[in-house]
Amino acid sequence: MKGFGLDGKLFRGLSKAGDFLILALITVICCIPVITIGASLTAAFYSGMRLVKDEENYVYKDFFKSFKTNFVQGFIMEVVLAVIGVVLFIDLRAYWAFSGSGSMIGNIFMYAIVGCFVVWGGVVLYSFAVLARYDDKAFTVLKNSLILCTHHLPQTIIMMVATYG
Questions:
Q1: Element holding 83 (H helix, E strand)
Q2: What is the pLDDT of residues 102-125, one digit of tens each?
Q3: What is the pTM of this model?
Protein backbone atom coordinates (compact mmCIF):
# COMPACT_ATOMS: atom_id res chain seq x y z
CA MET A 1 0.00 0.00 0.00
CA LYS A 2 3.05 2.23 -0.17
CA GLY A 3 2.15 3.46 -3.69
CA PHE A 4 -1.24 4.77 -2.54
CA GLY A 5 0.02 7.03 0.26
CA LEU A 6 0.36 10.82 0.07
CA ASP A 7 3.97 10.45 -1.06
CA GLY A 8 3.20 7.66 -3.52
CA LYS A 9 3.42 7.79 -7.28
CA LEU A 10 -0.34 7.83 -7.77
CA PHE A 11 -0.92 10.89 -5.60
CA ARG A 12 2.04 12.75 -7.11
CA GLY A 13 0.79 11.95 -10.62
CA LEU A 14 -2.73 13.14 -9.81
CA SER A 15 -1.33 16.27 -8.18
CA LYS A 16 0.77 17.01 -11.28
CA ALA A 17 -2.27 16.45 -13.53
CA GLY A 18 -4.27 18.85 -11.36
CA ASP A 19 -1.50 21.43 -11.64
CA PHE A 20 -1.60 21.14 -15.44
CA LEU A 21 -5.40 21.57 -15.40
CA ILE A 22 -5.03 24.71 -13.27
CA LEU A 23 -2.35 25.97 -15.68
CA ALA A 24 -4.62 25.35 -18.67
CA LEU A 25 -7.51 27.17 -17.00
CA ILE A 26 -5.37 30.18 -16.08
CA THR A 27 -3.97 30.27 -19.62
CA VAL A 28 -7.40 30.24 -21.24
CA ILE A 29 -8.69 32.95 -18.91
CA CYS A 30 -5.66 35.15 -19.56
CA CYS A 31 -6.00 34.66 -23.35
CA ILE A 32 -9.54 36.10 -23.38
CA PRO A 33 -8.29 39.67 -23.87
CA VAL A 34 -6.63 39.19 -27.25
CA ILE A 35 -3.70 41.49 -26.54
CA THR A 36 -2.46 39.18 -23.77
CA ILE A 37 -2.25 35.98 -25.81
CA GLY A 38 1.51 36.25 -26.32
CA ALA A 39 2.31 36.85 -22.66
CA SER A 40 -0.17 34.18 -21.59
CA LEU A 41 1.30 31.49 -23.86
CA THR A 42 4.81 32.41 -22.77
CA ALA A 43 3.81 32.17 -19.11
CA ALA A 44 2.10 28.83 -19.76
CA PHE A 45 5.26 27.42 -21.36
CA TYR A 46 7.38 28.74 -18.50
CA SER A 47 5.13 27.25 -15.83
CA GLY A 48 4.78 24.00 -17.76
CA MET A 49 8.55 23.62 -18.02
CA ARG A 50 8.89 24.20 -14.29
CA LEU A 51 6.16 21.61 -13.63
CA VAL A 52 7.88 19.01 -15.78
CA LYS A 53 11.25 19.62 -14.08
CA ASP A 54 9.65 19.51 -10.59
CA GLU A 55 10.87 23.06 -9.87
CA GLU A 56 7.47 24.62 -9.30
CA ASN A 57 6.30 26.21 -6.09
CA TYR A 58 2.78 27.21 -7.04
CA VAL A 59 1.55 27.13 -10.61
CA TYR A 60 -0.27 30.45 -10.48
CA LYS A 61 2.71 32.26 -8.90
CA ASP A 62 5.09 31.01 -11.60
CA PHE A 63 2.52 31.83 -14.28
CA PHE A 64 1.91 35.41 -13.21
CA LYS A 65 5.60 36.04 -12.53
CA SER A 66 6.42 35.05 -16.11
CA PHE A 67 3.33 36.87 -17.41
CA LYS A 68 4.53 40.17 -15.92
CA THR A 69 8.14 39.62 -16.95
CA ASN A 70 7.44 38.73 -20.59
CA PHE A 71 4.38 40.87 -21.27
CA VAL A 72 6.06 43.43 -23.54
CA GLN A 73 8.11 40.93 -25.54
CA GLY A 74 5.15 38.56 -25.83
CA PHE A 75 2.97 41.40 -27.09
CA ILE A 76 5.59 42.48 -29.65
CA MET A 77 5.96 38.92 -30.92
CA GLU A 78 2.20 38.47 -31.03
CA VAL A 79 1.77 41.61 -33.11
CA VAL A 80 4.61 40.73 -35.51
CA LEU A 81 3.32 37.18 -36.01
CA ALA A 82 -0.26 38.41 -36.44
CA VAL A 83 0.77 40.99 -39.06
CA ILE A 84 2.76 38.39 -40.99
CA GLY A 85 -0.18 35.97 -40.80
CA VAL A 86 -2.65 38.59 -42.03
CA VAL A 87 -0.37 39.56 -44.94
CA LEU A 88 -0.01 35.91 -45.95
CA PHE A 89 -3.77 35.41 -45.69
CA ILE A 90 -4.43 38.49 -47.85
CA ASP A 91 -1.91 37.20 -50.41
CA LEU A 92 -3.66 33.84 -50.50
CA ARG A 93 -7.06 35.49 -50.90
CA ALA A 94 -5.67 37.65 -53.72
CA TYR A 95 -4.41 34.54 -55.47
CA TRP A 96 -7.83 32.90 -55.17
CA ALA A 97 -9.51 36.03 -56.53
CA PHE A 98 -7.24 36.22 -59.58
CA SER A 99 -6.58 32.52 -60.22
CA GLY A 100 -8.97 32.16 -63.15
CA SER A 101 -6.18 32.09 -65.73
CA GLY A 102 -4.36 29.06 -64.25
CA SER A 103 -0.96 30.40 -65.33
CA MET A 104 2.35 28.89 -64.27
CA ILE A 105 3.36 32.12 -62.49
CA GLY A 106 0.12 32.05 -60.51
CA ASN A 107 0.73 28.46 -59.42
CA ILE A 108 4.30 29.27 -58.36
CA PHE A 109 2.94 32.26 -56.40
CA MET A 110 0.38 30.04 -54.66
CA TYR A 111 2.99 27.41 -53.68
CA ALA A 112 5.27 30.16 -52.36
CA ILE A 113 2.47 31.55 -50.20
CA VAL A 114 1.55 28.11 -48.86
CA GLY A 115 5.23 27.43 -48.12
CA CYS A 116 5.49 30.72 -46.25
CA PHE A 117 2.34 29.80 -44.31
CA VAL A 118 3.90 26.48 -43.28
CA VAL A 119 7.09 28.19 -42.10
CA TRP A 120 5.04 30.85 -40.30
CA GLY A 121 3.03 28.13 -38.55
CA GLY A 122 6.24 26.46 -37.40
CA VAL A 123 7.66 29.73 -36.10
CA VAL A 124 4.43 30.35 -34.18
CA LEU A 125 4.80 26.93 -32.53
CA TYR A 126 8.34 27.60 -31.34
CA SER A 127 8.38 31.34 -30.63
CA PHE A 128 6.56 31.55 -27.30
CA ALA A 129 8.30 28.45 -25.94
CA VAL A 130 11.68 29.94 -26.86
CA LEU A 131 10.72 33.22 -25.19
CA ALA A 132 9.74 31.33 -22.06
CA ARG A 133 13.10 29.55 -21.97
CA TYR A 134 15.54 32.30 -22.99
CA ASP A 135 15.76 35.96 -22.08
CA ASP A 136 16.29 37.59 -25.48
CA LYS A 137 14.75 40.39 -27.50
CA ALA A 138 11.61 39.61 -29.46
CA PHE A 139 13.23 39.65 -32.91
CA THR A 140 16.10 37.44 -31.70
CA VAL A 141 13.53 34.96 -30.39
CA LEU A 142 11.70 35.01 -33.73
CA LYS A 143 14.97 34.45 -35.60
CA ASN A 144 15.90 31.55 -33.32
CA SER A 145 12.40 30.10 -33.72
CA LEU A 146 12.82 30.21 -37.49
CA ILE A 147 16.15 28.41 -37.17
CA LEU A 148 14.61 25.76 -34.90
CA CYS A 149 11.64 25.35 -37.24
CA THR A 150 13.80 24.69 -40.28
CA HIS A 151 16.53 22.71 -38.49
CA HIS A 152 14.07 20.27 -36.90
CA LEU A 153 11.71 20.03 -39.86
CA PRO A 154 10.40 16.45 -39.32
CA GLN A 155 9.58 17.17 -35.66
CA THR A 156 8.06 20.53 -36.64
CA ILE A 157 5.78 18.87 -39.20
CA ILE A 158 4.64 16.31 -36.63
CA MET A 159 3.97 19.07 -34.07
CA MET A 160 2.07 21.09 -36.68
CA VAL A 161 -0.12 18.13 -37.58
CA ALA A 162 -0.81 17.46 -33.90
CA THR A 163 -1.47 21.11 -33.05
CA TYR A 164 -3.18 22.52 -36.12
CA GLY A 165 -4.80 19.30 -37.29
A1: helix 71-97
A2: 677 778 888 899 999 999 999 999
A3: 0.84
